[in-house]
Design a protein that fits this description.
Length: about 675
C-alpha cells in the first residue's frame, strides 16, 4: 500500500435511509489520481434486494453533491451541491423503482448553506451557515450585493477584536459572524417564505465550532420546534465547555434553555419518536473537554431529568432512538474499538451490538435491524446492516477492486502491566506473511484522550506504514479513551509521567510478544500530543530510537499556553493558567533539550492555530544549531491536519524517506 493509494481510495460520507426503509442514499468522495482534485457524488442502494449494487444519481458535471436526506414521503432526495458556485440546497425526485428525475435547485440564498435538517412532516427545513449576527435573513438578502458579512469595520482589511476568540482551529475569527440556524417553509420541493432566525438574542455558534454539525440539532416529532446546541460567545468562551441545549418554537423564533442543562457540556439532543422523551449527552465538570458524557433522559411533564445507565463507565459519542422509542443506540470507545450499544430506557441495561472496528452513521430500522458504517485497520468505511438476530451483512464494497490489489496486514492485540500495575493495551500491525526481522515504527496517538484502535485513518494510517516493511506498535497509554473515565483522567497534570512509563513498558512488551520485531532499528512517530511526546522522548529517552518524526508537537508549554485558541484544554490538563500552576515547567520539553541527539523530522501546517507552527520552528532551529540531523516540512495551506491529496502524498513520502534513512540495516551501528 502506497501513499498514493491512501490519498486516492474512495471515502464514504453521510448516509440516509428512506421513510419506507427501501433505499439508502450516501455520498462517496473520489480523488483524481493525477490532479488529486476531490469531488463527491451521491449513490442510491436498494435495501430490499440482496446483493444490490449502488447506483449513481443526481450527478452534475463539475460539481459535488453531498449530505443526502429523504423527504417525509420518500419521493424526493434533498442534498447540497456547489454547482451554482455556492453551496445550495437541491433535490431530485425518486420513484418507486428507484428511478430519478432531473436535479432541481431548491434554494438560492445569498450565503453558503453549511448544513440542513428537514422537519419530520417535511413542510419545514432548518438550514445553517456563517451569517453576521445583525443579518435578519440568511445572508442579508435585503441588501444588494451583500454576502452575509456585515462585520468588518473598514475601510481597510483589518479585523478589530476586543475579546477572544481571535482565531479558532484553522481560521481567524470574523467579529460578529457566527454559525446560525434559520427555518424556512418547504413548498413544492423548494425553500419558501421568509427566513426565521432561531437564535433570537443568543450570541454564539450553532452548530458549535469547529466540529459541530447536524448531531447538535433535533426537530421535535411534531415539527413545531427544534432543539439546538450553542455555547455563548463572550470573552470567556475560549475557557468554557458550557454548551447548552435550547428549544425554540418555529412560530416565535425565541429560544429558551431546555430543562436539565448543567454548567459543562450538554449536547446531542434527540427526541423520541413518540414525543415522550428527550435524550442528550452531558458532562459534569466545566472546563474539561474529555469528561465522561453520560446519557440524560427527560420525560415530558416531569421536572428533572434522570441519568440512564449511570454505572456504565463509558462516554457516548452519538445518540439515536429506536423506532419504538424503547431504547437508544449509542456509540462509544471500548478497548481499541469504537462500538455501537443498545441502552434500554426501562432499566438502563447496556448491550454491545458490534464487534471489532469503528462504527458510525447509526440508523435503527423498524424491524429491529440497523444500518451503520464501519471502518477498520484493514479497510476504510463501508455500509453494513445488522439484523435483529445479530447477523451482520456488508452492503457496499466501495474500494473492493483497489483493496484486492493491496496486501492485508496482520493485527495482534496485546496487554501488559503499565504504570501503577494497571492493565494497558497495545497493537502490533505488520505485513501479513512477512519474513525476517522488521524494524519498528512506534506510533503515539494524539488527543491525548484518544486511541489508534481498530480504525481507518486518511492521515495517520498504521496499514500504510506497515506496508513499507515495518512492524507498527501502538500503545493506549494512561489517558486513552475506551477504558473508563478514571483511566482517561489519569493523564491530568501528568503529561510526561505515566504515559511515558506506559510507552516504555509497552515497547518492551511488544518485543516479547513478537520476536520478529527488530528493537535495534526503530523510529518513533507522533502528532499533536503525540508530537509533544516526541519532544519529551527526545529529552527523556534519547538512546532508544534511531529517528523521530514529530507532527505539530508542543515544544514549549509556556508559549503554547499563550498562543493556543481553546484555552480550556491547556488549562484543565495542566492545572490552570500558566501563572497559577504549582510547577509549570515540570513537563515542559524545552527544559530538557540539552539531552537531545536523535535525528528528527518536524512537520507543521501554517494554518494550525491549535498548536501554532512556531512549536516546530523552534525545535528545528535548536536541532540545526546543535548539529542534530533534522528536517522541517511546512505546509502553507494545511491546519492541524494534512487534508489535501498532494500534500498527503508529500507528507508520507517525506516520512517514509526519513524512516528508511535511519532504520535500514546497519544504520543504527
Amino acid at each position: 500500500m502506497t501513499a498514493e493509494d491512501l490519498a486516492t481510495l474512495k471515502r464514504v460520507g453521510s448516509v440516509a435511509v428512506s421513510p419506507d426503509e427501501k433505499w439508502t442514499a450516501f455520498g462517496v468522495t473520489e480523488t483524481n489520481p493525477e490532479s488529486y482534485k476531490r469531488t463527491t457524488a451521491l449513490y442510491l442502494l436498494d435495501l430490499s434486494t440482496p446483493k444490490a449494487r449502488p447506483v449513481r444519481i443526481a450527478d452534475q458535471a463539475n460539481a459535488s453533491e453531498h449530505s443526502p436526506s429523504f423527504s417525509a414521503d420518500g419521493k424526493r432526495l434533498y442534498y447540497l451541491s456547489d454547482i451554482s458556485e455556492s453551496e445550495q440546497l437541491w433535490q431530485v425526485a425518486i420513484n418507486a423503482g428507484g428511478q430519478t428525475g432531473e436535479p432541481v435547485q431548491a434554494s438560492d440564498l445569498k450565503a453558503d448553506i453549511a448544513g440542513f435538517k428537514l422537519s419530520p412532516k417535511g413542510d419545514k427545513i432548518a438550514v445553517w451557515g456563517d451569517i453576521a449576527k445583525d443579518c435578519p435573513t440568511f445572508g442579508c438578502a435585503e441588501i444588494k450585493d451583500n454576502d452575509g458579512n456585515r462585520a468588518l469595520p473598514g475601510p481597510g482589511t483589518g479585523r478589530e477584536y476586543d475579546e477572544l476568540f481571535v482565531r479558532h482551529w484553522s481560521s481567524w475569527e470574523t467579529p460578529g459572524v457566527y454559525s446560525r440556524i434559520f427555518a424556512f417553509d418547504l413548498q413544492d420541493g423548494k425553500l419558501s417564505g421568509t427566513a426565521m432566525p432561531l437564535d433570537g438574542d443568543l450570541v454564539g455558534d450553532s452548530p458549535s465550532k469547529p466540529f459541530g454539525g447536524g448531531e447538535e440539532i433535533s426537530w421535535s416529532p411534531s415539527g413545531r420546534g427544534l432543539a439546538f446546541v450553542l455555547r455563548k460567545a463572550d470573552r470567556n468562551e475560549p475557557k468554557s465547555t458550557d454548551l447548552d441545549i435550547y428549544g425554540v418554537a418555529i412560530s416565535s423564533g425565541k429560544p429558551k434553555q431546555m430543562p436539565g442543562n448543567g454548567d459543562a457540556t450538554d449536547t446531542l439532543p434527540a427526541f423520541s419518536p413518540d414525543d415522550e422523551w428527550r435524550a442528550w449527552a452531558a458532562m459534569e465538570r466545566p472546563g474539561y473537554e474529555s469528561d465522561r458524557k453520560v446519557i440524560k433522559l427527560h420525560r415530558k411533564g416531569e421536572k428533572e431529568p434522570v441519568v440512564l445507565a449511570g454505572d456504565w463507565d463509558r462516554s457516548v459519542s452519538s445518540i439515536t432512538w429506536t423506532p419504538d422509542s424503547k431504547a437508544l443506540i449509542v456509540t462509544a470507545s471500548e478497548v481499541l474499538d469504537y462500538a455501537a450499544f443498545r441502552v434500554d430506557i426501562a432499566d438502563g441495561s447496556v448491550t454491545r451490538l458490534t464487534k471489532n472496528g469503528s462504527v458510525g452513521n447509526i440508523i435503527p430500522l423498524k424491524d429491529g435491524s440497523m444500518i451503520f458504517t464501519k471502518k477498520s485497520l484493514q479497510a476504510p468505511v463501508d455500509i453494513y446492516r445488522r439484523a435483529a438476530d445479530g447477523t451482520v451483512t456488508q452492503l457496499t464494497n466501495i474500494n473492493g477492486n483497489a483493496l484486492a490489489e493491496i496486501d492485508e496486514v496482520a493485527v495482534e492485540r496485546f496487554n501488559f502491566k503499565g504504570a501503577g500495575g494497571h492493565q494497558v493495551w497495545g497493537q502490533i500491525i505488520k505485513p501479513a506473511g512477512a519474513k525476517g526481522k522488521l524494524p519498528m515504527a512506534f506510533l503515539v496517538h494524539g488527543g491525548p484522550q484518544g486511541s489508534f484502535g481498530d480504525s481507518w485513518s486518511t492521515r495517520w494510517n498504521p496499514k500504510v506504514m506497515a506496508s513499507q516493511g515495518y512492524a507498527v506498535v501502538t500503545i493506549d497509554f494512561h489517558g486513552s479513551a475506551g477504558y473508563g473515565q478514571e483511566f482517561m483522567d489519569s493523564i491530568n497534570q501528568d503529561w510526561g509521567g505515566k504515559p511515558l512509563e506506559d510507552l516504555k513498558l509497552g515497547h518492551a512488551a511488544a518485543l516479547k510478544v513478537d520476536k520478529q520485531i527488530d528493537g535495534t532499528r526503530s523510529c518513533a512517530l507522533g502528532a499533536s500530543y503525540g508530537g509533544y511526546m516526541m519532544n519529551w522522548i527526545a529529552g527523556q529517552w534519547p538512546d532508544q530510537f534511531d529517528c523521530i518524526i514529530n507532527h505539530a508537537g508542543i515544544f514549549d508549554l509556556r508559549s503554547f499556553a499563550f498562543s493556543t485558541e481553546e484555552l480550556w484544554f491547556d488549562q484543565w490538563d495542566h492545572g490552570g493558567p500558566w501563572w497559577e500552576r504549582a510547577d509549570p515547567e515540570k513537563w515542559n520539553p524545552i527544559q530538557h533539550i540539552d539531552k537531545w541527539k536523535t535525528p528528527t523530522l518536524f512537520i507543521h501546517g501554517e494554518k494550525d492555530f491549535r498548536i501554532p507552527y512556531t512549536q516546530s520552528l523552534m525545535p528545528f532551529t535548536y536541532a540545526q544549531e546543535r548539529n542534530i540531523p533534522s528536517k522541517l516540512l511546512i505546509f502553507a495551506d494545511e491546519n492541524h491536519w494534512v487534508l489535501k491529496g498532494k500534500n498527503s502524498v508529500q507528507w508520507h513520502n517525506t516520512v517514509f524517506d526519513w524512516m528508511a534513512r535511519w532504520t535500514k540495516e546497519g544504520q543504527s551501528e
